[in-house]
Amino acid sequence: MPFLPSLPERLAAVVGASHVLSDPALTASYAVDWTGRFRGRAALVVRPGCTSEVAAVLRECWTDGVPVVPQGGNTGLVGGSVPVGVPGAVLLSLRRLSGLGPVDEAAGQVSVGAGSTVAAVAAHARAAGWDFGLDLAARDSATVGGAVATNAGGEHVLRYGPASAQVAGVEAVLADGQVLAPLGAGGVVKESTGYDLGAMLAGSEGTLAVITAVRLRLVPMLPSRVVAVVGVADTAAAQRVLAAVRREADGLSAAELFYADGLDLVRAHTGLPPPLPAEHPAYLLVECAGRADPTDALAGALAGVSEVRDAAVATDAAGRAALWRYREAHPEAIGAVGVPVKLDIAVPPAALVAAEPAIRAAVSAAAPSAQAILFGHLAVGNLHVNVLSAGTLADEVTDAVLRVVASHGGSISAEHGIGRAKVRWLPLTRSPAEIAVMRAIKSALDPRGLLNPGVLFPLHR
Ligand SMILES: Cc1cc2nc3c(=O)[nH]c(=O)nc-3n(C[C@H](O)[C@H](O)[C@H](O)COP(=O)(O)OP(=O)(O)OC[C@H]3O[C@@H](n4cnc5c(N)ncnc54)[C@H](O)[C@@H]3O)c2cc1C
Is the pTM of this model over 0.70? Predict the structure, then answer.
């Protein structure tokens, strides 16, 4: 056993014996990621119920020099939430930190536990007449802490920005057990007294501190919504349709792209009928939302664009959800076929038309029998590149795609993070100076390197 025999008992004294798991039958599900690609082993799973318990658990681990892997909903797609290659790690599950504070009407904000799911926060906000600007297909399991730690994006980035834009303040615990509770986390809306420590945790992927609570900005609830799925010839046509909608329709809140091959997998997996009478090479899903009904404005914008081959439009909740399903079911439909290499890239939107075929060509050259399924968030130039049947060539495929992305001035991760999956490619798009600063921050906050070793930076051997 790589940790002191007394550790489980000391941790049980903090969180209660029922929240310290060591039986492999109970810990196994925590140690494998959503895709099934990353499988590790957690020596212990510890489930604290409040910030002071998180602090006490981290102090015990710090004392013994035990590595800690923070985990929220375990929906992350880059292997950052599971202990792979970290023998003797304590997996710290934050799901019990799921408290939802009262909506602060004066500030338009709410404080929530880091383990609250994105869906729970949205429902809580809506019950008070507000809404939450972050949404993603994993909403029922993904936690706010995980979303901030990965700076998640999702479906409404073009309107509300990524997770970091929703954050007004963060409460977190350092590796040695010290609690950071900046004023923003307590509801002070404006503050300029030095470094914004909470903001630094966006995208930190559990390597700097454990997030225990988040103060979130809420957005207005917009009662009228319309969703359209538009059949188009290709990526360039989808971009031209999107540009028209942006120019002419108010309230654009989502613009998603998928292709015929991905739709085929979705239909095979879900049994859904085709969204449009005829098949098209590519599909654009757009959603507009507002106080006034945006349907006519959207229909008018679509009517004026020659690239629109056909469109299905829905205004009622069930119809909108049915159209969204064609896009949101992509990850599970792909996962049903096999374990994909998952990449999540962004290029400047103007470079997307050139980058998309270059990415497909790079996959074919690196792994001729692989299948690349692309889909993503069109307005922000973010494509999810899912490669099936890469076999032993996963690294070659990753390398080829990420080099194409770098050559188009893009980012190797738009919203999923680096995790363990992409550590060796970080220098492709972050300069030596940037990486040196990131390492210096890591050493300052976690000098013993105990928080999520192997994520963002290579493991020390
Ligand atoms: C079907 C599906 C669709 C998805 N769609 C999107 C999408 O559209 N946009 C998008 O951005 N992502 C998407 N994702 C990825 C994933 O849902 C997000 O990254 C999500 O934010 C992760 O939250 P989580 O609670 O599951 O975090 P986990 O997977 O548990 O952890 C992710 C990372 O955050 C760290 N972490 C978790 N909680 C904490 C904490 N409290 N303190 C410190 N570190 C922590 C972990 O150590 C790990 O490095 C999708 C995933 C799935 C399965």
Answer: yes
